[in-house]
Amino acid sequence: MATPRLFAGFLIVLVLASCNNNQGDKDAMTVVERPGEPEIYELGDDDKRMNDAIDSAVQTIHLFKAALLSKADSLEAFSLKVKYSMPDGYDEHIWVSDIRLEDSVFTGYIGNTPNVITEVKLGDFVRIRPERISDWMYLASNKLRGGFTIRAIRDKLSPQERTAFDGENGFIIE
């Protein structure tokens, strides 16, 4: 079994938190740095590019499932991004790694330390409700498949930030 932090090197850029009561520019992105932890990219709920990315992920989850079930040796790092909500309307989207499909239910381990939510913590085993899935990804010969929210975040970065982002991830984003 893979450890929950097996792909922690790229999780530095894959945490998305959005806040329902975010004020200001709808396209604004805030980077929250945490010593010893992955960075968090915060976006408002009204960010069109991110909402489109989530919609794309939900509409194509069957592709993720087919790849997972194929058990192909060239495919790895199967992860799902899952939305967790606080009573105050704050939503935090957290990557779950080591994904398995058991009795038509996705399961896995929380892949990074949550910033605000307390419902789960790093390494917790979770069953994933389909309505909470906000993204999916896996690597095929070290190339990102899926990762719609990753691409949405990357698109917002300056050319210099994008170069650093790509270098930190350790996989290829086409």
Strand content: 35-45%
The number of distinct helices, counting runs of at least 4 residues, comes to: 5
- The shape is globular
**Rg calc:** 15 Å
Q: Can you count the beta strands?
A: 9
Give the fraction of residues assigned to helices: 25-40%
Describe the structure.
There is one protein chain. This protein is α+β, with helices and mostly antiparallel strands and 174 residues long. It is 26% helix and 37% strand. The chain is built from five helices and nine strands. Strands 1, 2, 3, 4, 5, 6, 7, 8 and 9 form a nine-stranded mixed sheet that branches. The protein has one domain. It starts with 7 loop residues before the first helix and ends in a 5-residue tail after the last helix. The radius of gyration is 15 Å and the shape is globular. The longest helix has 12 residues.
List the keywords.
single chain, about 170 residues, alpha+beta, 9-stranded mixed beta sheet, 9 strands, about 25% helix, globular
Concise overview:
The protein is an alpha+beta fold and about 170 residues long.
Helix and strand arrangement:
Blueprint: H1 8-11, E1 15-19, E2 29-34, E3 37-44, H2 48-59, H3 61-70, E4 75-85, E5 90-102, E6 105-110, E7 125-128, E8 133-140, E9 143-146, H4 148-155, H5 159-169
Parallel strand pairs: 1-3
Antiparallel strand pairs: 1-5, 2-3, 4-5, 4-8, 5-6, 6-7, 8-9
Helix pairs in contact: 2-4
